[in-house]
User: Fold this.
Amino acid sequence: MDKNTFTGLFLIMAIIAGSIYFLKPSEADLKKEREVQHQDSLKKAGLAKADKANATANFDTSKTAKVDSNLLKLPFGAASVGKQEFVTIQNEELIVKLSTQGGKVASVELKNYKTFDKKPLILFDGDKNQFGLKFAAGVANINTNNYFFTPSVKELNVAKADSGSVTLRLSYSPTQYIDYVYTLKGEGFKLGLTIKPVGLDAVIANSGALNLNWAASLHKQEKDMKMERQYSTVYYYNTDNDVDYLSETKDDQKSIGDKKMAWVAFKQHFFSNVLIAKNSIAKTDLSVATDVNDTTDVKQMKADLSLTRGTDGTFPLEFYFGPNRFNTLKDQGHDLDKLVNLGWGPLKYINRFAVLPVFNFLNKFNWNYGLIILVLTVLLKLVLSPLTYKSYLSMAKMRVLKPEMDEIKAKVGEDNPTLLQQEYLKLYKKAGVNPLGGCLPLVIQMPIVIAFFRFFPSLFELRGESFLWMHDLSTYDSVIKFGTSLPLIGDHISAMCLLMTISTLIYTYFNNQISGATGQMKYIGYITPIVFLFTLNSYPSGLNYYYFLANMFTFLQQYLIKFMVDDKKIHAQIQENKKKPEDAKKKKSGFSAKMEEMMRQQQQVQAKNKKS
Assistant:
């Protein structure tokens, strides 16, 4: 890469940076936006304070509706007015608040986890969350989310070795009603829900199936909102054991009518809200949306489900509110462990059946996770060491051949690249050298390197775990904060990402020395680490730490291999190969034969073009 190219790239980056800088919002606009957010936070703080003061679930968050005599005459009319109250049920892991308005789960708090800033971890709450059955009753279209249920108790605290239940009833008449029966065991992340319509077959049209509208706006839990949104979306799992999900990077929606669903999940980066249907879901409409101006909610997720009635006339459901820890999800059954996205294609199998078992084995020793990543890297490098040796040996052979290649280049010239490559192939053939020998081992290792790119960001175990100066291995470690977002790099520089980039640049330098790369090829390798700096700057420090360690151990491996590889012996062996008769050499590979034939045809075409 020449001086002019570097200058052009620098000017382009300067123009982009200048444009973003001069087009950024004014201080007055930012101040106004902060004031609006401050008012919103004050309102939410006031609500949280009032909620805490009414721990017995008697807190009234809505005004009593005005009684309309015509409204009372409609089906479930008596339940259309009232005031919202909360029923609190809890066990060792969960604090669940049920609302009498809609009989729904109004909020869920995970007792044993905190947000990144050490606040109570509440998955969702507030008016943006809905859970209502939709059906026709007489001339009225009913959505139970807007009607008031009567609870059987006000509060329930389930002991560790016990279980308990709460019933919320939506009455049509004394003998006709819909019961929501919530059950909770003393420990665990599951909340049971059985919907029981009683005596309503003549009232509800098509009572054999009910449409359920479930929506939630999920709160920010992690340090980096951008990364949390990137790993949050709606997942769904059908009865054919296939898991899929909506787009993670943009607003998306999908209708599914050809397959029955087993569960639907509103998945965040490290926590999930899953609705499991024990009788399957006949039809599903899913959507996910992001309000980029909202700094408190990650995404808004919605599912319209058609529930199938059981043989006993009920609709048995189950919620999972908990962490996206692979082993925890696996223990829940229903293949919930598929919520952990370990990559696509072969990457998924590498992570699931190779990396994850080794990680779980090391985790049993209760070491610091920084040490576990270190040992994991050492084991991986030992397994891949034969490939590293072959790659180094091949590059050493190419380095020894370089003087002869330079002679051929001077003789043939650069005007005829096809002929030049043909002469190179002849030299490789005589010397018994495979020009791709240094690349193939690296290509074989690439799926493993890329697999870790998906493994570490999805690893719940790293959340909140510190090592050295890194306070949380599941997110970036900022050594420099700019106070404003800059083009490409963001609002910070990650120390471990910077170390990883520097080590990759040093590795590229020494690799060029080994391979003898010159010209543009010598500089192309330096571009990739710079791209990684911009790409991985906001990725988990645990991932950058692994890549840094991988570079360090590669240095060590190459240093040790250097003592095992003698350039003089390689040169002598090459010269000996060149003296062997043609038939004594190894049979030409199919790839080499095809390359020679292709170049021969190209040379013939060029010769014809020159004559014409």
